[in-house]
Design a protein that fits this description.
two-stranded antiparallel sheet, mainly alpha
Amino acid sequence: MREKKTAVDRELERLLGDGPGSRLFEAMRYAVLPGGKRFRPLLLLVSGEAFGGEAGTLLPYACAVELIHNYSLVHDDLPCMDDDDTRRGRPSCHKAFGEGPALLAGDGLLSLAFEVLAGAPADAAGSGRKERAVLEIVRAAGVRGMIGGQWLDIGYAGSAVPEASYDDLISKKTGALILAAVKAGAVLGGADAAGLSAMEEFGRNVGVAFQLRDDVLDSGKEAEGDGARTRPNSVALFGTAGAKERLERAVGRAVAALDGAGMRSEELRYLAYGLLILDEGGGHE
């Protein structure tokens, strides 16, 4: 897993090398390098390899997913959204570069992700795997996924959110890109219908677990006075104990999906079980 993360970091470093508008690329690099545990690209790589995919084919798709994820963080931190001053223990991008440059840096990361996807290799068999994988990723980044979830998030900020609406929100804002990473990897690896079904169940539950963990950690920070604003979260809905219980159930369902399909990937299990580590130094970002 460390080797996979290193490969992702090196490729992101290459993709974000000095380019036109060096100050813009500096802001883009600041948002991505260094930092992050690369949870989503690791999911894509591990999912793909579980079905026989090759690392060289999978890596560009994994990096594109990480670029999309980091664009969303830059925009999420802006004053018009969550208004967060810090990210990964240092000033957020708009605090370091200004709001306008941060907005454009996020746009640049998203555009670069599409460029990487367009140039990513297709499988030699020409079976349409690339097109299917790209569709999963792009759809997850759009109005049916992250952007739709952000829309719901800002709409409910500061107010009570019904449980069903919260489930819909997290399945889009957080879960969509995680699920897309898992499914895109499986598609690129050549998974059959049963394998894809198992990975969809795995990815959906990992996405839920990821947000539940995030909510528990955020509730602790807000209790210390570090919360930028009140946003919909599972701790407010179910209490800390209830959120933790739901987190454990979601991880259990994710692993059960692997077991039911006879998938023996210890790396997929590692990524799922890591979400049960409830401290900032462990688990996944």
